[in-house]
Amino acid sequence: MQLILPRENWLTTLEEWSLQNRIAYTISPSEFNLSFSETVAEGAIHWLLLRPGLKIQIDLLQTRENVELGTQLCDADPLQFSFCLAGLSRGRLIDTTSSLETEPQPGQNLLMFNGISTTGYWECLANQSVQIVEILVEPWLLLDLIEHSPESPPLIVQQILTGKFVQPCFLIGVLTPAMRMTVHQILHCPYKGISRHLFLESKAIELIALKLAQMGEQKKFPRPNLKTADIERIYYASSILRHNLEHPPSLIELAKQVGLNDYKLKQGFHQVFGTTVFGYLRAYRMEQARQWLVTQQMNVSEAAHAVGYVNVSRFSSAFKRQFGILPSDCLDKKFQ
After folding, report:
1. What does the alpha-carbon distance between residue 56 and residue 48 come to, in Å, rounded to a whole number?
2. What would the CATH number be for the domain defined by 2-217?
């Protein structure tokens, strides 16, 4: 299912879709909810205006078929900080000369800048349980928030905010335990009314701070100009890793399988996924294990062995480093 929302007269378009039974929606000055026909997906996408220049978007869907939303974008649109707990999706930014794509995995975060004039598409794949929290912040508000900071933000963020960086981009990183906990607090907000509003605003700013801190701490790697074919090979390499969790190939073997040298493979993973080749594998292993545990498909020992750990104790230690909790805690509903 593809829905392309125009910048102008978008309310009229929503009403047409509603009359066609493609969607249902509710709207108020500060909130907007969008749901789809039951044959497409259960659940909804929820937007909440926290203050001028700052919105939060919460995607909680169980998809039955691919759901693609598209709209015309520009450089005045908000920066988008996305945090994915579950579900596979694709993002595309298309301008007059190029197309940029990304496939963030569960357990990753993403900073998206639209560029000067692009059409943006976001697609949730079929048969997925989607849990994504997005923070949308206007450049002027982010500048205001960091104005009195003694330190500057990461260079690329400075360039975006001051108009010196005009190309669309995706900046991917791994969800830290602190990010995951903050997203969990947003999804399970215990407050109502004004307390809920203030709580969500504080958590939205906290997520922005955590992403900027992560970007500042990442090592500076040369960013090769990857061709489209190279990026496709990087995604192919990630697919090979995901399908060989127990016995992954070595770096050299993986590079040979996808037709890249090991240097370009390493640099490509940093550019596309924001982490090393085996950092990506480790994060995916842990996220897959977490999903098996919270859905009670496996116990701790079974999950450890399924993702390639012979020693359950080492698995538990690695799991806690990524999520801040022990694997056994996932059996407790408050952590799910």
Report:
1. 5
2. 2.60.120.10
Q: Where are the chain's structural domains? A: 2-217, 228-335
Predicted confidence (pLDDT) per residue in 32-57, tens digit: 999 988 888 889 999 999 999 999 99
The torsion of the CA quartet 48, 50, 54, 58, rounded to 10 degrees, works out to -30
Q: Was domain 228-335 assigned CATH 1.10.10.60?
A: yes
pLDDT digits (tens, 9 = 90+) for 156-203: 888 888 887 777 788 888 888 788 889 988 988 889 999 999 999 999
Question: What is the per-residue burial (b if ≥16 Cβ within 10 Å, else e) of 288-300?
Answer: bbbbbbbeeebeb
Q: Which of the 8 DSSP states describes residue 310?
A: S
- Among 251, 317, 311, smallest CA distance to 280 is for 251
Lowest mean per-residue pLDDT among 10-24, 205-219, 220-234, 268-282? 220-234
Rounded to an integer, what distance in angstroms lies between the CA atom of residue 211 and that of residue 218?
Answer: 11
0.90 surpassed by pTM? no
Contact 306/293 with Cβ under 8 angstroms? no
